[in-house]
Amino acid sequence: MKIGIVIGSVREGRLGESIGAWVAERARSQVDATDVEWEVLDVKAFNLPIMADENWAQAEDGPAEVHRWRDAVAECDGFVFVTPEYNRNIPGAFKNAFDLLSRQWRDKTLAIVAYGGLGGVRANEAWRFTVASYNMHVVGDSVNLIRRVDFPGGTLALTDHHDASLVKVLTRLVSLTRAVTTERERTAAASG
Ligand SMILES: Cc1cc2nc3c(=O)[nH]c(=O)nc-3n(C[C@H](O)[C@H](O)[C@H](O)COP(=O)(O)O)c2cc1C
Fold first, then answer.
1. Best of 44, 81, 87 to mutate for ligand 1, by most ligand atoms within 8 A of CB?
2. Which CATH number belongs to the domain containing residue 47 in this structure?
3. Which of 57, 85, 136, 148 has the fewest CB atoms within 10 Å around its CB?
4. Is the pTM above the cut of 0.90?
5. What tens digit of pLDDT does each residue of 58-113 get?
6. Residue 124 class from Cβ within 10 Å (0-12 exposed, 13-18 middle, 19+ buried)?
7. Structural domain of 24
């Protein structure tokens, strides 16, 4: 099984990169799941265009950046969205990356690591109703990091509490992904 850790902020000086690195390191070292490969998918590194054609992902002549993104997402069975909150919502670049694809998200799983002034709670909730479009299965608990408390001086200050809450969420994601992947593959095989 493969789980993609998606870093959704793309601005210069973003906190998202360090949060994504923390999630990846703890996932690989502290979650008891030898059958899971964790891969960081950094939206910034894909250099995606603004979605101007909903068929780009499927079209043979669609942009190469979109096709690389499509293939990376398609290979994953589940995801961790590392999401900031911008203007009380999902950041535009992250939403664009999501909107560029469709079937590659369908019937997969998600856990959310959100951050912002109030822990990114509104972006967290916005993702939950957004991903319902593709019948994604979302872990109920999430990690919420509060900028003033958890980033004193502008860098992530980790505690045992952060690690414990992250590992709990990731462990639940792995269990959910195992069940959902089995069912997705069974349904696909049954429908030929
Ligand atoms: C355009 C913009 C809008 C923001 N709006 C909110 C907001 O509505 N609520 C909030 O809690 N934080 C807000 N913030 C603060 C961000 O959550 C915080 O700066 C966070 O570090 C951004 O993530 P990043 O560093 O990975 O880009 C905003 C930041 C930016 C740049």
1. 87
2. 3.40.50.360
3. 148
4. yes
5. 999 999 999 999 999 999 999 999 999 999 999 999 999 999 999 999 999 999 99
6. buried
7. 2-190
